[in-house]
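Troubleshooting log. The previous structure file for this entry was overwritten by mistake, so regenerating from the original sequence record. Sequence copied from the archived sheet and checked twice against the printout by T.R.
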Amino acid sequence: MQGSGNVLVVGEAGADGSPRTISWEMLTAARQVANELGHGNVTGLYIGNGISEAARIWASGGADRLLIADSEGFAGLMPLAGAAALTRAIEATEPAVVLVPGTTAGRDYAPLVAARLGAGLAADCVSFAVEDGAFVATRPVLGGRALTRITFPGGGPSIATVRSGSFAKAEPGVTEPIVEMLDVALTPDDQRVSLVETAPKGTGASRLDSADVVVSGGRGLKEPAHFAIVEDLAEAFGAAVGATRAVVDAGWRPHHEQIGQTGRTVSPRLYVAIGISGAVQHNVGMHGSDYIVAINRDPDAPIFKIASFGIVGDLFEVVPALAAEVRNAKR
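Regenerated output below.
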């Protein structure tokens, strides 16, 4: 392994500058790897615009050192700008292991950095280990039906992206990291793509990645018009709306709401599955939720095997009643 055996972990800022949910999980993963290395420290890299204070709060969740990449050039975290920041941080720290969030942005800039440095990259990882001094990453394959282990040969930084929901969320206030501003000179090429503006996509869909509560619907709703009861429950909770691949493929809902193997991966505090059977392709996208509530009329539906709480009944009766109770509880 390269350098001192330290771990470099990336934290990404949301639209408001605060850490994305997965950023807290990244600290847990990094600390675990550093502990297994035996002599490694954790350096956090926080990227965004106007995020210095949020970066300090995030890094206190387990980092020993914090590098802050804060400038207008990192607004929206475009791939080339993200790659420039991560490359600069790797040059400054010479880590043995680099962990990147498996977000849309992370999946773009991590391969760019790996290619530039000639380093190995394992994508969509769910666990890590250090065996006989080698870094080992585990990732799902075959639609989540099997796991494969990737052993890095060493000789350079080992880079891995981390699937959301794979690790517990760290809590702030655990460490007091040394803070440094990372000087990243973005070239014109790095800024060929820039963020012009952002706009919401509708009922909660634009914030699926960071929502505390997600309410999702499946084919059990029978027709697209019935998705109104999913939206009503989501509104009562103040939640984001999700959907299964079958629903999206049928044209009932837009693709950006799809949760699962070929869609988004979410890890909210509460996930409500309405009329969803629980196919493995969907479950891999939400199994990291703290609590899963399943509503389905079929008592043998696979979703109940992973649910924290299950309601066997007619969703057209259960869901409106649940929405009414949630509203009453908030009064």
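The first helix runs from residue 21 to 37. Archived copy saved in two places this time.
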